[in-house]
């Protein structure tokens, strides 16, 4: 006796041809719903949750990554041959500008010292862009800089315990129709880069980067100094601003004469004369990030080259207090630190090699072959004792402009007093007496500023300053008589 299979859940093409009423349609719907419920129950019972999620993720990625044969993909990694890929950071800033109100997946945050909320591209949804009738798609890829065939900068930091969080960043993939390849490379990519520069110039929060026995670490540059607030001789201030403006507009000239687009400044003078404030004012005026490099933390020429290679274009690189570094002292004078290499080796431990950073390595970066690594850069060296610095560092092409920040004199004092005391019309009965004393006494702007902060009453603050300057004048006279 043959057994007929149950009819529940079975339907064939003939079933559809015999459907002639609403009740028949309902039977088909009920059968199909029952079948789907049984299938769903079977899947949930037989396949573990982790395996189901894995299968779903693979299917999702397959359909997301699929693209027709006529599509071209450009992968943009954070690093290229061991150096920073500036196109990556340009894309990172550019993509959020193309996120519309219909975009459903975003990262949002509020950063200290930022007034507005910050939006970021999280990669869960493709971002579409249109440029000259070209449709383009941006998506995020994970760990794109691993195993890319180029030098991996992570290897360079394996001796350090702390690595920069930027090394865990992702990369981007840009997709478009192959027929637009030339226009994308020649127009769209430069458009992304120029948009990035405009964003940085208009809304950028300046950063200061520091490096001490490891990769660069950054924080916001919050120094309040500006050219308007600097207590500096107005003629010197204007000459610095003019020099900066001339540097910015001479890109074509530098290229024409075959020189790297960079300029070097030497800031020298006694402590407290405003070297750090001038650097901050220059950074704000140019809208350049600052890289503050402590040469005492550099232990080899290769490490110096690596650190310089990771600095960005449109930046100020600062080498502070170079007279405190034995490698840049005048070689014609006796070495005050003859055993520095040996002591360095002891300080850093038995397994740490002696110091190998050399003056020639620094000079090679300033105007040798390595000087072309990057453009539109300002190099600033500071020192309290210019006469101690090796003349090889001081010549034009390395330090193009020498800026002497001296003790406070009359013109600069007027600016300082106006900033601190808000004196109406910038006139006071004690100004002339103070200015006469400043011509006789060497005192730094930092010392005078301290007296101006002691009271909000201009008469009290300036009276205390007069008393201090008079005491200093007496001390100077007594000292000269003893000599």
Automatic annotation (TrEMBL):
Co-factor(s): Mg(2+)
Alphabetized UniProt keyword annotations: ATP-binding, Hydrolase, Magnesium, Nucleotide-binding
Residue span, AAA+ ATPase domain: 261-409
One GO MF term attached to the UniProt entry: ATP binding
InterPro entries linked to this entry: AAA+_ATPase, AAA_N_dom, At3g28540-like_C, ATPase_AAA_core, ATPase_AAA_CS, Mitochondrial_chaperone_BCS1, P-loop_NTPase
Domain of life (superkingdom): Eukaryota
SUPFAM superfamilies, A to Z: P-loop containing nucleoside triphosphate hydrolases
Catalyzed reaction equations: ATP + H2O = ADP + phosphate + H(+)
GO biological process: response to stress
A Pfam family assignment: AAA_lid_At3g28540
Family the UniProt entry places it in: Belongs to the AAA ATPase family. BCS1 subfamily.
PANTHER family per the UniProt record, alphabetical: BCS1 AAA-TYPE ATPASE
Protein name: P-loop nucleoside triphosphate hydrolase superfamily protein
Organism field: Medicago truncatula (Barrel medic)
Gene that produces this protein: 11412855
């Amino acid at each position: 006796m043959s057994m007929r299979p149950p009819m529940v859940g079975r339907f064939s093409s003939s079933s559809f041809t015999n459907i002639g009423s609403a009740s028949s349609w309902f039977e088909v719907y009920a059968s199909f719903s029952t079948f789907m419920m049984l299938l769903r129950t079977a899947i949930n019972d037989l396949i573990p949750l982790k395996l189901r999620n894995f299968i779903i993720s693979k299917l999702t990625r397959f359909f997301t990554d699929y693209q027709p044969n006529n599509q071209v993909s450009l992968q943009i990694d954070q690093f290229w041959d061991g150096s920073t890929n500036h196109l990556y950071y340009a894309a990172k800033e550019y993509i959020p500008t193309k996120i519309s109100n219909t975009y459903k997946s975003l990262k949002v945050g509020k950063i200290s010292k930022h007034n507005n909320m910050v939006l970021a591209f999280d990669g869960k949804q493709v971002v579409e862009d249109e440029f000259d009738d070209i449709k383009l798609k941006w998506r995020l890829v994970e760990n794109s800089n691993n195993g890319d065939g180029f030098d991996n900068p992570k290897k360079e930091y394996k001796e350090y315990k702390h690595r920069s969080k930027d090394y865990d960043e992702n990369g981007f993939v840009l997709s478009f129709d192959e027929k637009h390849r030339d226009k994308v490379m020649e127009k769209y990519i430069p458009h992304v880069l120029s948009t990035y520069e405009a964003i940085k110039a208009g809304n950028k929060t300046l950063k200061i980067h520091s490096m001490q026995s490891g990769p660069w670490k950054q924080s916001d540059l919050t120094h309040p100094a500006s050219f308007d607030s600097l207590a500096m001789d107005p003629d010197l201030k204007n000459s610095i601003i003019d020099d900066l403006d001339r540097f910015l507009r001479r890109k074509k000239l530098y290229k024409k004469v075959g020189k790297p687009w960079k300029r070097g400044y030497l800031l020298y003078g006694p402590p407290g004369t405003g070297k750090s404030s001038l650097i901050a004012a220059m950074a704000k005026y140019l809208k350049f990030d600052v890289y503050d490099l402590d040469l005492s933390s550099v232990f080899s020429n290769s490490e110096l080259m690596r650190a310089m290679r990771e600095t960005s274009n449109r930046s100020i690189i600062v080498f502070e207090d170079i007279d405190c570094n034995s490698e840049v002292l005048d070689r014609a004078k006796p070495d005050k630190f003859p055993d520095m290499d040996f002591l360095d080796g002891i300080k850093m431990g038995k397994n740490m090699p002696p110091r190998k950073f050399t003056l020639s390595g620094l000079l090679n970066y300033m105007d040798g072959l390595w000087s072309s690594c990057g453009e539109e850069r300002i190099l600033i060296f500071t020192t309290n004792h210019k006469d101690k610095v090796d003349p090889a560092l001081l010549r034009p092409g390395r330090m193009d402009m020498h800026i002497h920040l001296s003790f406070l004199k009359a013109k600069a004092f007027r600016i300082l007093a106006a900033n601190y005391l808000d004196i109406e019309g910038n006139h006071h009965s004690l100004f002339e007496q103070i200015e006469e004393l400043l011509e006789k006494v060497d005192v730094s702007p930092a010392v005078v500023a301290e007296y101006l902060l002691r009271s909000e009453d201009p008469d009290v603050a300036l009276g205390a300053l007069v008393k201090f300057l008079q005491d200093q004048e007496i001390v100077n006279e007594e000292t000269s008589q003893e000599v």
